[in-house]
Design a protein that fits this description.
Largest sheet: 4 strands, mixed
Helix content: 55-70%
Radius of gyration: 28 Å
Number of helices: 15
Strand order of the largest sheet: 1-2-3-4
Strand content: 5-15%
Bound molecules: zinc ion
Shape: elongated
Low-confidence stretches: 383-392
Distance between the termini: 30 Å
Number of strands: 11
Mean pLDDT: 82
Order of helices and strands: EEHHHHEEHHHHHHEEHEEHHEHEEH
Length: about 400
């Protein structure tokens, strides 16, 4: 996510503003202000609003009312996201934050529900809140005397827009709310990963249609939303498929076990290390202490990048101990394969040492994970004889 800062919290959930939001708020205020006469005319015709058009278009009024309406819209978006968040909290899902950004709001759930009823209720809560906000705005609109043209404009506008927001979110374009509802309904009769892939395919089709429509209508916001939907549908589908594929798969199942692992000792010279990397075609080795080799006591990890720090003429004088990394990222053999993937991603590294009670029992690399994933995808199960044997 981009740079965002916290503006406060509601029900213990931090509310954050993304920097892109600060660009879009004045833009919305401007767009509402510039069209205020036309919009007031539409409200007069549809809601019988009785707005004095000369009043709302006079002086600075379009910009002041535009700004208030834009802020009101985003308050509506926060309430919509709170609808999702509070429902999710009721089911015990922790909510990291609600972030307002370019295309509205995002409620960040730490985990996603896999129970279709829970997902259905969490997804539909947002649009329901938007409809309620629209109805409340309409009631306030009715209660406001016709002499207050500005207030009637803002309230009438928010009534229409919040209902429109609910309808727009119900488009079955995963990962929008309608798409999540679709996935929940699909997941009733088939595995969750399959339901996600189907919902994501439909989402991508909608995204393409939306993007084309936006292109022809010169609607930049719609093009942006389409792009966002397309990317998000792809990445969430991939993540869910991976999670499903790796259900019940542990690190021990896919790691290269210590017995098959090539290790180097602390006193190996850099020249020898590079020679071994060249002949064995590995770019990273776990380092074990020279005098305790049998024990397999792990002291570091050395990669080609580390070795290259030493100039070629000096490579006989330096040992692995001088260049190795000792800040080791490790994982336990009985951890989930997904946990290993997440840890590699968080630390932006390609391999983790598998350690049990301080002893090196194996090494798991990004390519081990990808190979295992391909096998599961193609055959439906892990075949231990096909276990990858590389240390890269
Ligand atoms: Zn929503």
């Amino acid at each position: 996510m981009m740079k965002s800062f916290r503006i406060g919290s509601l029900f213990g959930i931090p509310i954050k503003l993304d920097l892109t939001f600060l660009l879009v708020l004045p833009l919305f205020a401007y767009l509402i202000g510039i069209q205020i006469g036309d919009v007031a005319g539409i409200l007069n015709a549809t809601l019988n609003a009785g707005i004095d058009i000369g009043d709302v278009t006079g002086g600075l009024n379009p910009w002041i009312l535009g700004f208030i309406a834009a802020v009101g819209l985003f308050v509506g978006v926060v309430l919509h996201e709170l609808g999702h968040s509070l429902t999710a909290q009721r089911y015990g899902f922790p909510i990291d934050s609600i972030t307002l950004w370019l295309f509205g709001g995002i409620a960040a759930l730490s985990e996603m529900p896999e129970n279709w009823k829970e997902e259905f209720n969490i997804a539909i809560a947002g649009p329901i809140v938007s409809v309620l906000v629209g109805v409340a705005s309409y009631v306030l609109f009715l209660a406001t005397p016709e002499t207050f043209s500005g207030a009637r404009f803002v309230l009438g506008y928010l009534a229409v827009l919040n209902v429109a927001l609910a309808i727009f979110n119900m488009i079955p374009a995963f990962p929008m709310d309608g798409g999540r509802i679709l996935r929940a309904l699909l997941a009733r009769g088939r595995p969750y990963a399959q339901a996600t892939q189907q919902a994501a395919s439909i989402g991508k089709m909608f995204a393409i249609a939306m993007g084309l429509f936006g292109l022809f209508a010169f609607n930049i916001i719609l093009i942006g939303v389409a792009f966002f939907v397309y990317i998000a549908a792809s990445s969430e589908a991939q993540q869910v498929t991976m999670k499903a594929a790796f259900q019940d798969v542990t690190v021990a199942d896919i790691m290269t076990p210590a017995g098959d692992l090539h290790t180097v000792e602390t006193d190996t010279s850099i020249a020898d290390l590079i020679q071994r990397m060249f002949t064995e075609r590995h770019t990273g080795y776990p380092v074990v202490e020279a005098d305790r080799f049998d024990d397999g006591r792990l002291v570091g990890l050395v990669t080609l990048t580390d070795a290259r720090e030493i100039k070629p003429v000096e490579r006989d004088a330096y040992t692995v101990e001088d260049v190795m990394t000792t800040d080791l990222k490790t994982i336990e053999p009985n951890s989930d394969a997904m946990a290993a993937i997440e840890r590699m991603r968080e630390n932006d590294i390609g391999r983790l040492l598998v350690v049990e009670d301080g002893d090196l029992v194996g090494l798991i690399s990004r390519s081990d994970v990808m190979t295992a994933f391909d096998i599961v995808q193609q055959s439906g199960a892990l075949n231990p004889s096909k276990k990858p044997q590389t240390a890269d």
